[in-house]
């Protein structure tokens, strides 16, 4: 659905979750309208708590806060409080949770308050968990500011923090009431971080949407150049794919949600063995999808042309397709510890054709090693 | 339903919550069978994490842990880890949550682990929140060891911790998989704490169950003397009442669950103005129910005989029915801050007859003051 709003084009994707359904609104240059969107989607809004990544506090979080405060009427004023969180993964901690919960309380938060998260996946996960836990759950709105957050972390209701040595170990399933995406917000994001987000976009094409994959092949140059129309379309189709998977398996119980892990068992092992920091997450996912596709071809599950097309698209998006230092001896033990391992057997999400994947249990270790080694060049 | 189990009488109450339904098993001297009950109700159990109040670690938590470990078979062993928590409300803190989450991780907790809470409401609320949050939610079993926890806090899925100055401000709705009650566990509980729990039992009679109220009138002496049969019956009927209310309003959204707050708006003001510690919670609830019934009589909502019967039953249970130091000037401001106040109007759960209550909004402040003053003697 595409609806004109205040002269801008805003497309909207519905996340179908019964009483917890919500919409993702995607636009370019329409963030002036965010305050109005929040009021119209949430109804009774009198106290808003904005939690922002320090890197995007100015101008984005500040302008959304000001617009919200200004949108109150005399009869129903809106009180807005705002705090910033240090950029980076270490903020997803119990210490930061403690600080934010006390901040919400001190600002007079109650069951009717609304939390607005402005930032990348770190802020969305952290602020979402605050929303899930304060007063046993209050409403929250996601304003994602990285491409990864727009197409992945802000959709689906997974919130949480890390324990020392254990990422995302603590959290809740808690759905936002609204997700507001303005592609203009990405203007300050580094090209490397932006491209990294494109890896997840490509993922949706491979696992769920052959037509979208073909569109990405056509639009790769426009996407790398961040052309707004191509970008809005890519975000919208990605969110549609994620929303439909989440709608079928909200709490990760049926197994359906596992298809979102395409490339990720390899990617986690790449991130861990390369040393955290060498690859951005999306870069590791790009290489991980290559290993998974290679494995699928080797197992006779799909045609080699799938790997060729995926390789070309990843390259067109300026992302890595190989890793010269890949070491199966180092990667395998990490993969065996991964949550996707059941009773010591390696399980993978593998493509059968563009747009379709299957969960394969009990994959031969030698085949996995071979796929890793083949992707060294 | 009453089913014989291992020669003991175990009655069981079902909490009807669709896919999250669970049973509360009530017995005397049957805690030897807890391990078997857990395995049969939960199915796949290979790693159990027991979190116990230090006051009941010996013998109760230790014996449940030993029985669980011993009940594993060679093909499917059960690993049991156990930790204790300091007695008392201050343990419901983020610091203790942090410690316990790291303990669960360090003991190898994963999505299939099971948490068992052995203690009163403090341990149940805290361990329940750990279960709700670890890996975004794992199974847990309540083994309540105070009467209040048996009839109230262990049923209904409210879990959580306190913030400085704000009780139960952080938490989750997270239902247990099973509640195991053995009245023998109460043998070490002080008489004062035990009697305090009876106030909540009386509450269920007034708000929901006239027949039960009459039984309590008959059985008051037996209950004060902790006769097992009378006690099991009282716990069972109390849990039935709470279960049916929770079944209708799991997440406190329809308003139905508010009836459980009968007497509590007054009680919270009594606890706050008497200085925390002067009254146990149930003692304040007893006086609070008297004030609420008095208010209902004064407003012409119910017959004065209701107050008379309630007074006699509370007295027969050796609980206070009046408070000489009650000060409406101190209590009213606390009541106005209470969550049950909407837009500055006082709201109360008031009885219309034994077994039935109504939510009354917009109660005249003068009538509230008068009810408080009349209960000074
Ligand atoms: N909840 C989920 O379903 C889900 C899914 C995937 C990832 N995640 C989580 O998301 C996190 C990663 O998300 P991320 O990649 O967005 O990381 P991030 O939030 O750390 O953002 C990356 C960096 O970009 C900066 N930044 C954000 N927006 C910016 C902008 N508009 N301009 C300039 N700089 C900007 C941040 O300050 C940060 O330094 C991880 O913690 C991961 O666990 C969650
Ligand atoms: N979740 C809910 O729905 C709900 C409902 C009501 C109350 N609560 C919470 O419950 C808590 C109060 O519960 P409580 O009254 O059980 O308090 P508690 O857990 O603090 O127990 C009271 C005292 O009794 C001791 N104790 C417990 N079992 C014993 C035993 N068998 N023998 C000897 N000593 C024993 C404890 O060490 C403690 O000192 C509060 O934190 C309250 O917020 C929760
Ligand atoms: Zn990813
Ligand atoms: Zn109570």
UniProtKB/TrEMBL annotation, chains A, B:
<dbReference type="InterPro" id="IPR016037">
    <property type="entry name" value="DHQ_synth_AroB"/>
</dbReference>
<keyword id="KW-0028">Amino-acid biosynthesis</keyword>
<dbReference type="GO" id="GO:0008652">
    <property type="term" value="P:amino acid biosynthetic process"/>
</dbReference>
<feature type="binding site">
    <location>
        <position position="200"/>
    </location>
    <ligand>
        <name>Zn(2+)</name>
    </ligand>
</feature>
<feature type="binding site">
    <location>
        <position position="281"/>
    </location>
    <ligand>
        <name>Zn(2+)</name>
    </ligand>
</feature>
<feature type="domain" description="3-dehydroquinate synthase N-terminal">
    <location>
        <begin position="84"/>
        <end position="194"/>
    </location>
</feature>
<dbReference type="Pfam" id="PF24621">
    <property type="entry name" value="DHQS_C"/>
</dbReference>
<feature type="binding site">
    <location>
        <position position="158"/>
    </location>
    <ligand>
        <name>NAD(+)</name>
    </ligand>
</feature>
<dbReference type="GO" id="GO:0046872">
    <property type="term" value="F:metal ion binding"/>
</dbReference>
<keyword id="KW-0170">Cobalt</keyword>
<feature type="binding site">
    <location>
        <position position="264"/>
    </location>
    <ligand>
        <name>Zn(2+)</name>
    </ligand>
</feature>
<dbReference type="InterPro" id="IPR030960">
    <property type="entry name" value="DHQS/DOIS_N"/>
</dbReference>
<comment type="function">
    <text>Catalyzes the conversion of 3-deoxy-D-arabino-heptulosonate 7-phosphate (DAHP) to dehydroquinate (DHQ).</text>
</comment>
<dbReference type="Pfam" id="PF01761">
    <property type="entry name" value="DHQ_synthase"/>
</dbReference>
<keyword id="KW-0456">Lyase</keyword>
<keyword id="KW-0057">Aromatic amino acid biosynthesis</keyword>
<dbReference type="GO" id="GO:0005737">
    <property type="term" value="C:cytoplasm"/>
</dbReference>
<dbReference type="InterPro" id="IPR050071">
    <property type="entry name" value="Dehydroquinate_synthase"/>
</dbReference>
<dbReference type="GO" id="GO:0009423">
    <property type="term" value="P:chorismate biosynthetic process"/>
</dbReference>
<feature type="binding site">
    <location>
        <begin position="87"/>
        <end position="92"/>
    </location>
    <ligand>
        <name>NAD(+)</name>
    </ligand>
</feature>
<dbReference type="InterPro" id="IPR030963">
    <property type="entry name" value="DHQ_synth_fam"/>
</dbReference>
<dbReference type="GO" id="GO:0000166">
    <property type="term" value="F:nucleotide binding"/>
</dbReference>
<feature type="binding site">
    <location>
        <position position="167"/>
    </location>
    <ligand>
        <name>NAD(+)</name>
    </ligand>
</feature>
<keyword id="KW-0479">Metal-binding</keyword>
<feature type="domain" description="3-dehydroquinate synthase C-terminal">
    <location>
        <begin position="197"/>
        <end position="341"/>
    </location>
</feature>
<keyword id="KW-0862">Zinc</keyword>
<dbReference type="GO" id="GO:0009073">
    <property type="term" value="P:aromatic amino acid family biosynthetic process"/>
</dbReference>
<protein>
    <recommendedName>
        <fullName>3-dehydroquinate synthase</fullName>
        <ecNumber>4.2.3.4</ecNumber>
    </recommendedName>
</protein>
<feature type="binding site">
    <location>
        <begin position="145"/>
        <end position="146"/>
    </location>
    <ligand>
        <name>NAD(+)</name>
    </ligand>
</feature>
<comment type="similarity">
    <text>Belongs to the sugar phosphate cyclases superfamily. Dehydroquinate synthase family.</text>
</comment>
<comment type="pathway">
    <text>Metabolic intermediate biosynthesis; chorismate biosynthesis; chorismate from D-erythrose 4-phosphate and phosphoenolpyruvate: step 2/7.</text>
</comment>
<feature type="binding site">
    <location>
        <begin position="121"/>
        <end position="125"/>
    </location>
    <ligand>
        <name>NAD(+)</name>
    </ligand>
</feature>
<keyword id="KW-0963">Cytoplasm</keyword>
<dbReference type="GO" id="GO:0003856">
    <property type="term" value="F:3-dehydroquinate synthase activity"/>
</dbReference>
<keyword id="KW-0547">Nucleotide-binding</keyword>
<dbReference type="InterPro" id="IPR056179">
    <property type="entry name" value="DHQS_C"/>
</dbReference>
<keyword id="KW-0520">NAD</keyword>
């Amino acid at each position: 659905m595409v609806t004109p709003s205040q002269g801008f084009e805003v497309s909207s994707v519905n996340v179908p979750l019964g009483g917890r359904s919500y919409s993702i609104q995607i636009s370019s240059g329409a963030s002036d309208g965010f305050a109005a969107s929040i009021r119209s989607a949430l109804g009774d809004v009198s106290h808003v708590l904005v939690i922002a990544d320090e890197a995007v506090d100015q101008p984005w979080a500040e302008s959304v806060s000001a617009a919200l405060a200004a949108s109150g009427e005399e009869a129903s004023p809106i009180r807005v409080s705002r705090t910033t969180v240090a950029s980076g993964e270490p903020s997803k901690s119990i210490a930061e949770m403690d600080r934010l919960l006390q901040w919400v309380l001190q600002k007079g938060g109650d069951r009717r308050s609304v939390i607005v998260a402005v930032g990348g996946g770190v802020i969305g996960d952290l602020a979402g968990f605050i929303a899930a836990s304060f007063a046993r759950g209050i409403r929250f709105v996601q304003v994602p500011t990285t491409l990864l957050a727009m197409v992945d972390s802000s959709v689906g209701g997974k919130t949480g923090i890390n324990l020392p040595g254990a990422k995302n170990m603590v959290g809740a399933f808690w759905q936002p009431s609204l997700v507001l995406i303005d592609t203009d917000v990405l203007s300050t994001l580094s090209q490397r971080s932006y491209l990294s987000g494109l890896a997840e976009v490509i993922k949706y094409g491979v696992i769920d949407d052959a037509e979208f994959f073909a569109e990405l092949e056509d639009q790769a140059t426009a996407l790398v150049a961040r052309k707004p129309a191509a970008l809005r379309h890519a975000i919208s189709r990605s969110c549609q794919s994620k929303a439909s998977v989440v709608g079928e398996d909200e709490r990760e119980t049926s197994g359906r949600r596992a298809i979102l892990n395409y490339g990720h068992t390899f990617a986690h092992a790449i991130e861990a063995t390369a040393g955290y920091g060498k690859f951005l997450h999306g870069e590791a996912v790009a290489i991980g999808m290559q290993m998974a596709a290679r494995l699928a071809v080797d197992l006779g599950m799909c045609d080699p042309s799938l790997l060729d097309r995926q390789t070309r698209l990843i390259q067109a998006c300026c992302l890595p397709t190989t890793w010269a230092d890949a070491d199966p001896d180092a990667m395998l033990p990490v993969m065996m510890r991964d949550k996707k391992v059941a009773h010591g057997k390696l399980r993978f999400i593998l493509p059968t054709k563009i747009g379709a994947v299957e969960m394969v249990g009990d994959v031969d270790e030698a085949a996995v090693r071979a796929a890793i080694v083949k992707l060294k060049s």
